[in-house]
Amino acid sequence: MSIKHSLLVMLEQQQRYGFELREEFERSTGSTWPLNIGQVYTTLDRLERDGLVSDLGTDERGHRYYSITEAGRMEVATWFSTPVAPSTPPRNELAIKLALALGIPRVDVAAVIQTQRLSTIQTMQGYVRSRREADKANKAEDFSWRLVLESLIYSAEAELKWLDHCEAKMLTMAKPPTSGTASAQAAPARTLELS
């Protein structure tokens, strides 16, 4: 997630100070990814160092305002026109957990999958409820939040499909080959220890 580009996009809309930027970011994303105010100011310092924003000084209430520079606008345009690189996927703790569990005989992999499935379903139900409430309120300013919710729902659905796939694959691998087939005669039955 690019905090740098998120701040630049919000500054392209209007001049803002750090707390405003944090509030706008969390409003747009429904606080899905809470943003630390210290992270906002650290990022603003780097953006200023790189010539992408300008420090406009402090107003009478102590708010330090920033504006985007022309170089910052070009950075935003480049960001929007460049696809997010899929070549370096983030570590998926669930995939790592299942991959490691398969190699440990004492771990009940089917139970691990079922526990995860129930958790994912509950999480997805929470997202669906939130979307339903947002749809019911039908506020134009919540549109971006609804898109984030839908992204989370689709991700949860994909995870559930992947868990179904893992479970089906395990069942297939756990079955011994049918006697009399070429594979049964050529090699010993492949089994998968699940407990």
UniProtKB/TrEMBL annotation:
Gene3D superfamilies: Winged helix-like DNA-binding domain superfamily/Winged helix DNA-binding domain. One of its GO terms (molecular function) is DNA binding. Residues 175-195 are annotated as: Disordered. Keywords: DNA-binding. SUPFAM superfamilies: Winged helix' DNA-binding domain. Residues 7-77 form the Transcription regulator PadR N-terminal domain. Residues 91-169 form the Transcription regulator PadR C-terminal domain. Signal peptide: none annotated. This is DNA-binding PadR family transcriptional regulator.
